[in-house]
Design brief:
By secondary structure, the protein is of the alpha+beta class. The chain contains 19 helices and 10 strands.
Length: 574
């Protein structure tokens, strides 16, 4: 009711709407309200569509005469909304959540796997215990930040080195705080008598090289991994994801940084960072990060990230998007002894297109091809149909008749006998569709012989995926679909790295500096604070829940920031 009655019709969103002057049937005010509902409930675009379809009174209250389909929501959020508007929607939702907690108003169950479950508002003792344990554990984890970082200064220094890290963390935990103005605020909170000025702060940190910064990130991460291993976390075979993210917009003269400033799909220019992060049901730590430079090949990125990471943890599977689809990337993964999983690009004259034509001619809906080579894992390509979709805004977003015939709305049991997260195969494929849709039209065969956009192809060398059963016979339909369903559920965990990017922005110092290494440090230090938050969450869960803990976070980013802001830099001087 609150969101439905927000008085925003008079606001002008033109500066934040890429579709201006054409807005279609859904004005920005309606979409803003819908996305606030999405953020409050921790939903994605598919779940938002399902939620509004199941609650017609809410849909009408928000102002929708017809229900947009999932792809319309996705395009609006990722392409139509500006980054500033997306941030504003998230901040508005967070403010509403905080207000409801303060007023003891119950919230809907927040279903996002990337967010913490809200404590029961009526259970004040449990909330107090949570805050107390977070405070205690943060004090234990704080040295993981200060002990692993070092500056290159002369022996006549007068300001303790930890003051730099405390000040940087302090600024990163405040919204829109810059190094130039941040020290003035930090001086009011810290107990230190001397702290660096803004110019000194930037100068000393700016002297660190990319190699220095990466080394400090890995040192901190190793300390966090060692602490997590004491509680039997991060000890088995782990999954990881590799992805590229952008920094804050670059506003200087790009001609002086032409090798480092890269264009982005929104038309802006940015420094970009490639990241390797643990995903799945483990503590989601960032293991390594590197700056992306012009002309850098994807296998070079993968090799740089895997070189140290494979010594830190036991990586079993690395998941990437189709940007990393290349033979050299596969070779690099196999060289480092890890399995890979990624969607592949489909070209008109490719072997994949020929296979799809064969599938169409023979009425095949699913197919697995294998490529065996001596001394390396068998490489497989998994072909499966996408969800049917049209441009009709009133489409119900259900599965095609093919999916209903082949898969129904089955829910599968996991290997251990646990239900597959209450997710039907159709819902999983709808989520995959969200990511694949951007590339659909680019991959359509130009000669019109076959609609390759109707098929998605995954590549992997993981032994779980096979074209036949243990006796090398053709699988029955149910076992085959079960295997495919689990493969897709694996890949769905890759989105954990993108959810992490959103959270890391909360820890990042803003800057107008044009220097790549200083900006890279800001990003890496935000990764370190993000990693510490995830360890704090693990230790708090162990203290409160013990062996009955779940993988859903107990301490969300906002709670961690609140506690860390109160405690960082307030200790007596070293």
């Amino acid at each position: 009711m609150l969101v439905s009655r927000l008085p925003i019709e008079h606001l002008t969103f033109a500066a934040h709407d890429s579709s201006v002057p054409y807005s279609g049937p859904y004005p920005m005010a309606l979409l803003v309200r819908a996305f606030i509902i999405e953020e409050i409930n921790g939903l994605d675009e598919t779940a938002l569509h399902d939620h509004l379809r199941a609650n017609p009174s809410l849909r009408r209250g928000l102002g929708f005469e017809t229900l947009p389909n999932q792809s319309t929501f996705w395009r609006a959020w990722n392409h139509r909304f500006s980054e500033a508007l997306r941030d504003a929607v998230q901040e508005c939702a967070e403010a509403i959540v905080k207000a409801t907690c303060a007023c003891d108003i119950s919230l809907p169950e927040r279903v996002s796997t990337s967010e913490a479950s809200e404590p029961d508002s009526a259970d004040c003792p449990k909330r107090q215990l949570l805050a107390q344990k977070t405070d205690e554990v943060w004090q234990q984890a704080k040295p993981f930040v200060t002990d692993a970082f070092a500056l290159s200064r002369g022996q006549n220094w007068q300001i303790h080195e930890n003051a730099f890290w405390e000040q940087h963390a302090y600024m990163g935990m405040r919204e829109d705080m810059y190094a130039r103005s941040g020290p003035a605020s930090f001086s009011l909170d810290t107990t230190r008598e001397r702290i660096p000025t803004g110019s000194t702060h930037r100068y000393q940190i700016g002297k660190l090289s990319v190699a220095d910064i990466r080394s400090m990130l890995r040192t901190t991460t190793r300390m966090l991994i060692a602490r997590a291993c004491q509680h039997d976390e991060l000890t088995g075979k782990l999954w990881a994801a590799i992805d590229v993210t952008k920094g804050f917009p670059f506003t200087g003269d790009a001609d002086e940084h032409e090798d480092d400033i890269l264009g982005y799909k929104n038309g802006g220019q940015y420094y970009q960072w490639a990241v390797l992060k643990i995903v799945g049901k483990d503590v989601p730590l960032v293991l390594d990060a590197i700056p992306r430079v012009r002309g850098q090949s994807k296998d070079e990125i993968v090799e740089k990230l895997l070189t140290q990471a494979t010594d830190m943890v036991n990586l079993d599977l690395v998941m990437m998007d189709r940007e990393f689809d290349s033979e050299s990337v596969k070779d690099t993964c196999e060289e480092y002894g890890v399995h890979y999983l990624n969607p592949t690009r489909i070209f008109t004259t490719s072997d994949e297109a020929d296979t799809i034509k064969w599938m169409y001619r023979n009425g095949e809906r699913f197919h697995v091809t294998e490529e065996k080579a001596n001394g390396t894992p068998t490489r497989k390509q998994v072909y499966l149909p996408k969800q049917s979709r049209s441009d009709d805004e009133d489409e119900d977003n259900d599965l095609s008749e093919i999916w209903q015939e082949m898969c129904g709305e089955w829910e599968f049991d996991d290997v251990e006998g646990e239900p597959s997260e209450g997710m039907s195969f159709s819902r999983l494929l709808a989520d995959i569709q969200r990511e694949e849709e951007v590339e659909e039209r680019k991959q359509k065969a130009e000669n019109g012989d076959v609609d390759t956009a109707g098929t998605v192809v995954f590549e992997t060398n993981h032994p779980y995926v096979t074209a036949g059963d243990a006796d090398d016979q053709q699988m029955d339909a149910r076992a085959f679909v079960h295997m495919i369903e689990r493969l897709i559920r694996w890949y769905r965990h890759r989105w954990g790295i993108e959810n992490g990017f959103k959270k890391q922005k909360h820890f990042m110092v803003r800057t107008t500096s044009t220097e790549r290494d200083y900006r890279f440090f800001n990003f890496v230090f935000a990764c370190v604070l993000y990693n510490v938050w995830r360890l704090v969450d693990l230790l708090v869960k162990l203290a409160i829940d013990g062996e009955n803990r779940t993988y859903a976070p107990r301490v969300d980013a906002n709670q961690f920031l609140t506690v860390a802001k109160q405690c960082y830099g307030l200790d007596p001087p070293d």
